[in-house]
Amino acid sequence: MGSMLAYMTSQHIQSKNDASIYDGVPERYKNTEIDLLGLISTLWESKRIIISAILLFSVVGFFISALLTPKWTSQAEITPAEKPQWSQLQKTLSTLQVLDVKPSLDKVEVFNLFLKKFNSESLREEFLTSSPLVAGKLMASNPDAEELRRGIVLLSEKIKAVNNTTVKSADTVPYQSWSLSFTAPVAGEAKEILSGYINYISALVVKETLDYLREEVDLKKNTERESLAMERERMNTLHDTKLKRLNYSLEVANAAGIKRPVYSNGQTVQDDPDYSIALGADGIAEKLKIEQSIADVTRLNADFRYREHRLAELDKLDIKDITFIPFKYQLSPSLPTKKEGPGRVLFIILAALCGGVIASVVVLVRHALQQQHH
Question: What's a single GO CC term here (predicted)?
């Protein structure tokens, strides 16, 4: 009996303490549990509003997706040139090497020059400005100079070159590869502009390369011509010195009474290193006569004559305008088959979901506000 009384007393105290927790709290805040069935029921009662919002957002999404400018990207992949692309230029380089012209030029250097020019902002704008296709599209809206300039800059930003070789894999990949791309509203235009820009840059690289070779040939000709002139002057000076020495030697031989070569009669004479008299006066006189008859001392120098011949061949050399490709296509400019960005159906579905979520939130908030007022 006593234990039951104690139990009832504790329950009374517990109940009293629990009730005291909510003293001074408004009645609408005492029940804080979430009634999921109630929320679902509220949403079901407002299903017409939610469905109407979904349909409205779907229609709006359809029109927005129709108004959005489509994006088509044409891509190309290139690597440094190989023998087939380099054959015409290699013939010219071989001819230059035979003539001792050794320009610093290789496939990788020309490939890097192409990439450098491809990424040039000024060259991009120059090409787009001169392109009939781009000019026709931009001039259709009759823009002023500032708007035209802005349109060209925006288009140039869509021409991209990306290195496919990462820094980590640079040591393991046997070759370097670059992806070139251009994005346009029409698939055919994307391919045409990318292909045109690649050809435009290739022509500039070919022209600059040939101009470089011509400059190297001209430099070699000027250097060789000046070098031959200096060598000729040196040889003439040596020849004049030799004639003077022979004259002095002839005077010494006559003064010494030595007419014939000293070795012909068994005589032994200690010869003068500056004015040799070993040939005797007759021999020295004959040698002097022969030396004086030489009009061009270079005729007896084989190396000088070879260099003159090489210079003559360089003068006749004409580096003609040849065609070569500074890279190799691993993938030529492609015709895009898939539009970038979300498709129209996916865009409409996302718009419908957004409309349903917004409508449901509005319905629940309105229901909560109505409960507060009650």
Answer: plasma membrane
- Which run of H or E residues covers position 213? helix 187-256
Same domain, 127 and 108: yes
Strands, sheet with 72-80, edge to edge from the N-terminal-most edge strand: 159-163, 178-184, 72-80, 327-331
Residue 180 belongs to a domain: yes
CA-CA distance, 292 to 288, in Å (whole number)? 6
Residue type at position 213: L
CB 261 within 8 A of CB 286: no
Between CA 300 and CA 306, with CA 301 as vertex, the angle to 5 degrees is 125
Question: Taking a C-beta distance cutoff of 8 angstroms, is the pair 77, 330 a contact?
Answer: yes
Same domain, 158 and 76: yes
pLDDT in tens, 29-80: 445 555 677 777 776 777 787 777 777 777 777 666 666 667 888 999 999 9
Distance CA 87, CA 107 (A): 11
Place of tokens 């400059």: 215
Prediction pTM value: 0.68
Q: Of 365, 362, 356, which is closest to residue 61 (Cα–Cα)?
A: 356
